Amino acid sequence: MTLTTDQQQIIEKIGVFFEKKGNQPILGRIIGLLMVIEEAEATFEDIQNALFVSKSAVSQALTLLQSQNKVEYITKPGERKRYFRLKIRNWKVDIQEDMKGVFKFNNIVEEIISTRSDSNMEFNSYLIEVSNFMKFMEAELPKLVERYKNQLK
Question: Signal peptide location in the record (predicted)?
């Protein structure tokens, strides 16, 4: 598999993006690779060779990406190889599930707010604002999803 300079740059941008979010850059690079190649799937060896990384780095990254439900693999009849691809087919459900996690965390934020004293009202007001925004998002997300579905009709 030969990548163009543009593809390599995009892959690197995605790797840097993931790194800035506190993840290993290899996670973003694998996702980037699977996004830019025309086949939208690659074998373990393809990934290793295209990204110039070790077997262990690819193995650990793919294991993590699969556990995060971001990557899956398929097999093809008559072949022993696994083909890794992004698990993007159910992106709407994935986004909603991710947001549910954020909304559940807001329950903890509200619990924290209820236990804090009035000694640091400035900080408390920030927590309250975050919590209020999360409640707003939770109420509005179903409406946004519905508007998006209607737009596709």
Answer: none
